[in-house]
Amino acid sequence: MNTEILITLVILLCAVVFYSTTWMNMTATSLLILAALYLSGIVSVSELFVNLVNSSTLLVIFMFIISGSLLKSGASAFIGNCLLWHAVSEKQIVMRLLLLSMLLSAFFSNMATAAVVATFAVGIAKSNKAYRLPKMTMSIAVGRILGGMLTIIGVSGNVMVRTFLEEAGAGTVGFWDFGKIGLPLCITGYIYMYFIGYRLSPSQSVTESAINDTEKQDNVYRKGQCIFTLMVFASVVICMMLENIIHLPIHMAAFFGSLVLIVSRTVTEKEAFSYVNWPTTLMFASLLTLGAAISKSGAAPLISDTFLRLFGEETNKTFILVVFFVLIVIITQFMSNGATAAVFYPIGLSVAQQLNVSPVAALMMVCVAAGSSFATPMATPLNAYLMSVSGCRFSDYMKVGVPLLLLTTIVCVILCPLIWRIG
Questions:
Q1: Chain centroid, CA 327 distance in Å
Q2: pLDDT tens digits, residue range 349-360?
Q3: Rounded Cα distance, 288 and 290, in Å
Q4: Is 187 left (phi over 0), alpha (psi -120 to 50) or beta?
């Protein structure tokens, strides 16, 4: 093991520890990663900040702006009110909030989805004491994770797949490719929550003061802005879906959507910048740089080779990828899902190359595994956010999340090798 590999692995270990704990905030950790990579000589100054302005990072930034404009105009509230119309029981409310979370998280940022739908849930709990906030927020937590797997813009980890594949010259993925596995997972999750998850969800009520503390804002409906923003959003999504036909990259579709919203003064310059979650964006860019360093230094082949040595030469390739998938699923319950994805993408590419299997198949399995963050609040910052909103306990996530995790893992290990052929 040469010095470069050793230093890269130390930086990787520190990144995992700091992102997984509260010892250091997200922004400080991201900046330290970049500083360490530069000072160690692993990454040159020309490579250090390149991921801050690459197509994937720009897509994340522009989608934050579009999501924020939908929240400001009341378009998100309008969609939510339509889905909640005529609901007469708590279970109906819970399942509709689950469906709404899936729908919104497929296209909006996860933070926007959590904020918008949690606001609905708090308002419902405040107006009707029979509807328990912990049950509603648990369905939101599950729905936003599953819905994020439907499209390439669902979560930042999905965009990373495209970046790593294209930079490695190993192909690419389209806007709806994630839906090939995301839709079966959403259906599975919906059925699970309807028959099992709802009953396992926490039943305790939340005090009036707790509800007041978590009710951040009212959703104001502005008809003109709402219609205009929805039209811009729909146009952006259509352009993304037709990327290969109109030859407009998806990050440019998001750019033009943001441009229209700012030029039309639907959102102000100050609001546009405030909508972007800069700590998440910086983490996204720094982890892309760390991922490139893991590949460049030779750490990725070393890790993948060590993993593959655990199996004999005659071991089935699909079985090896399934074990790799399960390993990532376990790790992502105790580490931020975005960080888990970024760490394992270069390793997944190396595993695919050594097994001589489809890199797309390997990275899609890594993406789904890293995104399956159901069982603990630490698996993703938004799980922790929703726990603070509802008063759910750590054990509540385990109770609902572990059976769902087992179920979705079974679905994934069966369908992923069939959808993206291994070999």
A1: 18
A2: 988 888 888 898
A3: 5
A4: alpha
| Token pair in block for residue 105 | 């998280």
Q: Residue holding tokens 């369908």?
A: 415
In the 8-state DSSP scheme, what is residue 193?
I
pTM for this predicted structure:
0.73
Look at the chain and count its residues: 423
Digit-coded pLDDT (tens) for 275-291: 888 887 887 788 778 87
Nearest to 136 by CA among 184, 187, 84: 84
Cβ distance 420 to 360 under 8 Å? yes
Percentage of the chain lying above the pLDDT 90 cut: 27
How far is CA 239 from each of CA 204, 247, 294, rounded to the nearest angstrom?
Answer: 45, 9, 34
CA separation, residue 84 to residues 47, 77, 78, 354 (Å):
48, 10, 10, 50
Amino acid residing at 400: V
* Interacting residues of 404 by C-beta distance below 8 A, sequence separation 6+: 142, 189, 192, 193, 197, 374
CB 311 within 8 Å of CB 327: no
